[in-house]
Amino acid sequence: QVQVVESGGGLVQAGGSLRLSCTASGLTFDDYTMGWFRQAPGKEREGVSCISWSGGTIYYADSVKGRFTISRDNAKNTLYLQMNSLKSEDTAMYYCAAEIRSGSWCDASGFAFWGQGTQVTVSS
User: Fold this and answer.
1) pLDDT tens digits, 65-89
2) CA-CA distances (angstroms) from residue 111 to 44, 84, 104, 122, 123?
Protein backbone atom coordinates (compact mmCIF):
# COMPACT_ATOMS: atom_id res chain seq x y z
CA GLN A 1 0.00 0.00 0.00
CA VAL A 2 1.39 3.37 -1.01
CA GLN A 3 1.62 5.98 1.71
CA VAL A 4 2.70 9.58 1.24
CA VAL A 5 3.21 11.91 4.18
CA GLU A 6 3.90 15.63 3.87
CA SER A 7 5.33 17.74 6.69
CA GLY A 8 6.99 21.06 7.38
CA GLY A 9 4.13 23.48 6.88
CA GLY A 10 3.23 26.21 9.32
CA LEU A 11 2.58 29.88 9.89
CA VAL A 12 5.27 32.26 8.70
CA GLN A 13 5.52 35.98 8.06
CA ALA A 14 5.85 37.31 4.55
CA GLY A 15 9.47 37.15 3.46
CA GLY A 16 10.14 34.11 5.60
CA SER A 17 11.08 30.55 4.67
CA LEU A 18 9.81 27.04 5.14
CA ARG A 19 11.07 23.63 4.05
CA LEU A 20 8.50 21.01 3.18
CA SER A 21 9.25 17.29 3.18
CA CYS A 22 7.37 14.39 1.66
CA THR A 23 8.18 10.79 2.49
CA ALA A 24 6.76 7.99 0.38
CA SER A 25 6.55 4.27 1.11
CA GLY A 26 5.10 1.30 -0.71
CA LEU A 27 6.43 2.35 -4.09
CA THR A 28 9.78 2.36 -5.83
CA PHE A 29 10.43 6.03 -5.24
CA ASP A 30 13.13 6.50 -7.85
CA ASP A 31 10.86 5.12 -10.57
CA TYR A 32 8.70 8.22 -10.36
CA THR A 33 8.69 11.84 -11.31
CA MET A 34 7.47 13.57 -8.15
CA GLY A 35 5.70 16.85 -7.70
CA TRP A 36 4.53 19.46 -5.25
CA PHE A 37 1.06 20.90 -5.69
CA ARG A 38 -0.99 23.41 -3.77
CA GLN A 39 -4.61 24.30 -3.37
CA ALA A 40 -5.98 27.45 -1.84
CA PRO A 41 -9.62 27.74 -0.74
CA GLY A 42 -11.92 28.18 -3.73
CA LYS A 43 -9.14 27.52 -6.23
CA GLU A 44 -8.06 24.54 -8.30
CA ARG A 45 -5.07 22.44 -7.37
CA GLU A 46 -2.02 23.74 -9.21
CA GLY A 47 1.40 22.32 -9.92
CA VAL A 48 4.09 24.19 -8.02
CA SER A 49 7.19 22.21 -8.92
CA CYS A 50 8.06 18.79 -10.30
CA ILE A 51 11.28 16.81 -10.52
CA SER A 52 12.23 13.80 -12.62
CA TRP A 53 13.43 10.59 -11.01
CA SER A 54 17.09 11.57 -11.41
CA GLY A 55 16.60 15.22 -10.56
CA GLY A 56 17.85 16.12 -14.00
CA THR A 57 14.66 17.78 -15.15
CA ILE A 58 12.82 20.29 -13.00
CA TYR A 59 9.73 22.41 -13.55
CA TYR A 60 8.65 25.46 -11.57
CA ALA A 61 5.45 27.41 -11.89
CA ASP A 62 6.17 31.00 -12.91
CA SER A 63 4.78 32.23 -9.61
CA VAL A 64 7.51 30.48 -7.60
CA LYS A 65 10.54 30.65 -9.88
CA GLY A 66 13.56 32.06 -8.10
CA ARG A 67 11.97 31.55 -4.68
CA PHE A 68 11.30 27.82 -4.37
CA THR A 69 13.72 24.93 -4.84
CA ILE A 70 12.67 21.31 -5.27
CA SER A 71 14.99 18.41 -4.51
CA ARG A 72 14.84 14.73 -3.75
CA ASP A 73 16.82 12.11 -1.88
CA ASN A 74 16.06 8.76 -3.48
CA ALA A 75 17.99 6.88 -0.78
CA LYS A 76 15.55 8.29 1.79
CA ASN A 77 12.42 8.14 -0.41
CA THR A 78 11.97 11.82 0.36
CA LEU A 79 11.00 14.87 -1.66
CA TYR A 80 11.71 18.41 -0.48
CA LEU A 81 10.52 21.92 -1.27
CA GLN A 82 12.57 24.83 0.05
CA MET A 83 10.39 27.93 0.01
CA ASN A 84 12.01 31.33 0.45
CA SER A 85 10.70 34.89 0.22
CA LEU A 86 7.21 33.65 0.96
CA LYS A 87 4.26 35.79 -0.02
CA SER A 88 0.68 35.85 1.21
CA GLU A 89 -0.42 34.37 -2.11
CA ASP A 90 1.61 31.24 -1.31
CA THR A 91 -0.91 30.42 1.41
CA ALA A 92 -2.42 27.03 0.58
CA MET A 93 -2.48 23.36 1.43
CA TYR A 94 0.58 21.76 -0.12
CA TYR A 95 0.58 18.19 -1.40
CA CYS A 96 3.10 15.88 -2.97
CA ALA A 97 2.28 13.14 -5.42
CA ALA A 98 3.83 10.73 -7.93
CA GLU A 99 3.36 10.93 -11.68
CA ILE A 100 1.46 7.92 -13.00
CA ARG A 101 0.76 9.17 -16.51
CA SER A 102 3.98 9.80 -18.35
CA GLY A 103 4.24 13.26 -19.81
CA SER A 104 1.82 14.84 -17.36
CA TRP A 105 4.58 17.08 -16.15
CA CYS A 106 3.08 18.86 -13.20
CA ASP A 107 -0.49 18.53 -14.38
CA ALA A 108 -2.27 17.24 -11.31
CA SER A 109 -4.55 14.99 -13.37
CA GLY A 110 -1.56 12.79 -14.18
CA PHE A 111 -0.48 12.30 -10.58
CA ALA A 112 -1.64 9.95 -7.85
CA PHE A 113 -0.83 8.72 -4.34
CA TRP A 114 -1.76 12.02 -2.75
CA GLY A 115 -0.96 12.62 0.89
CA GLN A 116 -3.05 14.53 3.42
CA GLY A 117 -1.16 17.72 2.73
CA THR A 118 0.57 20.25 4.93
CA GLN A 119 -0.83 23.73 5.46
CA VAL A 120 1.30 26.77 4.68
CA THR A 121 0.01 30.11 5.89
CA VAL A 122 1.88 33.30 5.13
CA SER A 123 0.87 36.39 7.07
CA SER A 124 1.39 39.80 5.52
Assistant:
1) 999 999 999 999 999 999 999 999 9
2) 15, 25, 8, 26, 30
CA distance 11 to 29: 29
| pLDDT digits 0-9 by tens, 24-74 | 999 999 999 999 999 999 999 999 999 999 999 999 999 999 999 999 999
d(CA 117, CA 30): 21
Q: Where are the beta strands (DSSP E) in the chain?
A: 3-7, 10-13, 18-25, 34-39, 46-51, 58-60, 68-73, 78-83, 92-99, 111-112, 118-123
CA dist., res. 3 & res. 98, Å (int)? 11
Alpha-helical (H) ranges within 1-124 are none
